## 1
Amino acid sequence: MNNLDRDLRVLVLAPTGRDAELISDLLTSKGIRCEQPGTLAMARIEMAAGVGALLVAEETLTLPEITAWAAQVALQPSWSDFPIILLTMSGEVDEESQRRSLLRKPLGNVVLLERPARPETLVSTVQAALRSRRRQYQMRDYLAVQRLAEEALRKSEKLAVVGRLAASMAHEINNPLASVTNLLYLMGQSGSLWECQEYAQTAGRELARVSEIVTQTLRIYHQTGRPELVSPAEIVNSALNLFRARLTAAQIVVQTDFRECRPVLAMGAELRQLILNMIGNALDAMRTGGMLKIRVAASSERSNGSRPGVRVTIADSGSGIHPAIKEQLFEPFVSTKGDTGAGLGLWVSSEIVRKHSGKIQVRSSVSPPAAGTVFSIFLPERPHFESRVFFARAV
Ligand SMILES: Nc1ncnc2c1ncn2[C@@H]1O[C@H](COP(=O)(O)OP(=O)(O)OP(=O)(O)O)[C@@H](O)[C@H]1O
Ligand SMILES: [Mg+2]
């Protein structure tokens, strides 16, 4: 017997005379598989293995039996609504018949068939019950496929995160490792002990940076650090200080506009990383000088119940974002910088913003004289932190 045959069996329980046998013969002659479990307790055991419907004579149902069935019915999975065809006694609607109808209420999906039932009526009622059971099985199979697909998706998402993590780490440690290779080569070529010591010291510093990057990058966390109250303006200031030398060398004029605003609850290190990513990109877009304007001001996000927060706007007069990548800007590995860009900065930044339940938007133009890019980041004062797997990237 294959699974479907088993799942569509009809259990026939009619203890009086040869009823069960006659009914089974009739249904079998119509291609319906029947079994006679003998007792309701046996029928319940069979039900666990898969049954299409139960055809049962009303007199079999005692109160304890109904209670036991009701418990089983309540335990059905969400897709199941097990059909029961109840062969009722004929006669008037009286007190006794009403008592019986109340009694069978907990049995769930019950169809009544009054005896004596015509053979065609009996067969068509059973067929209808089996049709509905077949649809329930379709739903069961659909849900099982859904579950498998969801699991596969979850696994592939986890793998993707690990892949990105590895790519990001490789990207970050590539430069210091190249320096170390270079320094080792120079040491081999040098005849001076003093020079070799200098090279060795520099190589040591580069390796320390590699180890720092690895530690920092491997910090995969489900929201470990604690959120703290931070001032976005202070973070912007400290980030600008870090870039001071590059800004001066590239002849970039910086204009800041810090308005009065309240601190926001945030992961400080991540906000710093976010701002550094944005300023780094702006600098890359202004190789031959330009203007960098950063504004920090109190704001509220109208689209989401007027949440109060802070908006950081970073505008540069650089090259503008290449139209070919605009659509995928926040996806990983999207870059126009060749070997010098991994295309992870904006992806990581958008993850940070999302984790802080904020919003990041961009406007950009590549046509001079209006060429340039504006990133606008809204950070709510009191974010609801998502606890999803996330990695911090070394900066
Ligand atoms: N301010 C900007 N002006 C012009 N183009 C930008 C700007 N910011 C981002 N882009 C474009 O978006 C791409 C993706 O930026 P992203 O920061 O994600 O990666 P990346 O800077 O190329 O590499 P990484 O940040 O990983 O070192 C960049 O390569 C660049 O083409
Ligand atoms: Mg970048």
Note: The pocket of adenosine-5'-triphosphate (ligand 1) is lined by residues 277, 281-282, 285, 316, 318-322, 325, 329, 334-337, 341-347, 373 (CB under 6 Å).
## 2
Amino acid sequence: MAQKVSPDMFRSVFKSIDKDVLRWFPGHMGRGLKQMQHKLRSIDCIIEVHDARIPISGRNTDFKYTISGVKPHILVLNKVDLIDKKLIPSITNRVKNEFEHVIFTNCKDQHCKGVRKVFPLAQNLIKSSDRFNRSEAEDQCVMIIGVPNVGKSSLINALRVRNLHKGGASPVGAAPGITRSVLTRIKMSEDPLCYMLDTPGILTPKIESTEVGLKLALCATIQDHLIGETVIADYLLFWLNKNGHYNYVTFFGLEKATDDILEVLTQISIKHRKMLKLRDNSNNYIYRPDLDHGAKIMLQAFRSGALGKIMLDADLL
Ligand SMILES: Nc1nc2c(ncn2[C@@H]2O[C@H](COP(=O)(O)OP(=O)(O)OP(=O)(O)O)[C@@H](O)[C@H]2O)c(=O)[nH]1
Ligand SMILES: [Mg+2]
């Protein structure tokens, strides 16, 4: 890149947006939370899964009061393949006051060492806990909780394959809200007899700030259409410029780094030949770049890791 760029050349704050659009608490989440509370008596350990790209932001802190209480608790930061591994010690350090046990996982990797640690750690914690009302129960039950789309069902499937090599899988999908109710128990091991319970992703009904809401949206934990792909893509552009990540310029074939989302989306739409066919005032056909499609491509590039390894909470460490 010929031009010398630095973060102070770009916006320092993101435009304010209506906070109501960031709130997503559909009926299945309220029902799911009730089902989870109902099952609590039969749970020995809680595994909370969150997205490693936002290790500090967007966790549902209400879980501590409504779900986990005094049960052994493990924080699994999943999608570690999408962040720079060098950040793992500082993330662990940042969350250590809240979580004694933190494991980083990539559930898409069959050989992930983090995934391998989850089951033995849960076993140890259950063994060393007094299990309250369940001290007589022979089977163990672990509940997997977290906000939508962080990989809860993927973790269950990765663990299930590892320990049993058979049995029913939990449905997984790229959009948030795939698991919609507390599902039947999935057997993790025969000896000791241990089950896992998948649950629907549950966001906090009150998101603390616009920035947290937009980070959650960028990581696809809130459905895109609620906020709009263009707004989320604009936040991504803002974040990339502010944090000095300019590889989007070459990736999307732009001339230079820019703060103008319309310029970026126009270029992406043209490059991908995504055009809208419209009629002008004289009723002739004209073609215009499909900016919504451009925004979808831009978000997909971030979410798949094609824009590089990006940890959105880097400034909070
Ligand atoms: N890159 C990457 N993607 C992952 C990983 N784990 C899961 N995914 C993807 O993340 C998406 C969501 O996975 P799910 O397992 O359905 O997430 P969930 O938390 O059960 O989602 P809900 O049931 O909707 O709350 C899917 O597209 C998975 O393929 C991971 O470690 N790395
Ligand atoms: Mg799920």
Note: The chain has eleven helices and eight strands.
## 3
Amino acid sequence: MNFNLFKHNDLFSTASQIGLEDLPIILAAGYKSVICNRPDGEDGGHHVGSKELAAACEALGLAFSYLPADATHLSKEHGTALRLLLADMPAPVLAFCRTGNRSTNIFRLANLIDTPIQAAGAGNDKLKQYEIVIVGGGSAGITVASSLLKRAPNAQIAIVDPSSQHYYQPAWTLVGRGIFDSKKTVRPMASLIPSAAQWIPQAVSEFLPDHNRIRLDNGCLIAYQQLIVCPACGLHGRR
Ligand SMILES: Cc1cc2nc3c(=O)[nH]c(=O)nc-3n(C[C@H](O)[C@H](O)[C@H](O)COP(=O)(O)OP(=O)(O)OC[C@H]3O[C@@H](n4cnc5c(N)ncnc54)[C@H](O)[C@@H]3O)c2cc1C
């Protein structure tokens, strides 16, 4: 197998770039559909094109869809498009791009639409539990999650943050001086969360340290073994 595979659940997985020779392996692994998120011609176009892939998939009896996405311009529309495809295509489905990250982020965007709570499992009555819960997906939260996953790739980590955008604040001083583009300081949160971590798009409303739990804005509880708190601080003037 020449590609990296990440199984999100029984029905959906993402992978790095696949080749025609990988399709029989994908079929043998039980997948019924393939989605290509990598635009034809990207990076010089040395990878197999969508038309060739579509023909090869058809020959093997795999469903195929082409949903190209530029990694730096992911939007809710990509999530909506993926939802529509998933409603139609036989499962399990394997989506791929160059590294797998873009496909993962589109899946996250798809999960945020209409049913954001379900995406995090927080809407279920069942209590969600993680080894490590990180509150705040700013520079601190993302960095600590990445660092932990480097050392413990299988750690079950959740990052709780309601913001759909990530702001790189240190660059704002340069923006103020007129020497940095403010647009470059904002990126979709989904594109920065490490693929092995679960993003819970909610705010924490209460800490319950005696019970190793936090309460979310939607009222749901999340249990943890270790809690890392990095929501930064807010200025509230004189109170
Ligand atoms: C103009 C300016 C210039 C700066 N320059 C520098 C610099 O040069 N060098 C430097 O080191 N630092 C600088 N800083 C400080 C900078 O803010 C921090 O370095 C860095 O952004 C802090 O990251 P953070 O993750 O702690 O906080 P943030 O990036 O603010 O992230 C906090 C996250 O927590 C989330 N959050 C908040 N409340 C909750 C809640 N209840 N539940 C869940 N999530 C929540 C927020 O949505 C946010 O995404 C600057 C700041 C400013 C404003």
Note: The CA atoms of residues 65 and 229 lie 41 Å apart.
## 4
Amino acid sequence: MLICPSCMSGKVVKNGKTYYGKQNHKCKDCNRQFVTNNKHTITDQ
Ligand SMILES: [Zn+2]
């Protein structure tokens, strides 16, 4: 399960793909958007 890098919430939903084809996610608690790479490293958008 993905965890929000900002508020550590688990309420993260998919939010389409970025321009570079990475999966984009969005936190439902703080509305922050972030992406993950193949190794599940979370990076700021
Ligand atoms: Zn959050």
Note: The chain has a mean pLDDT of 87.
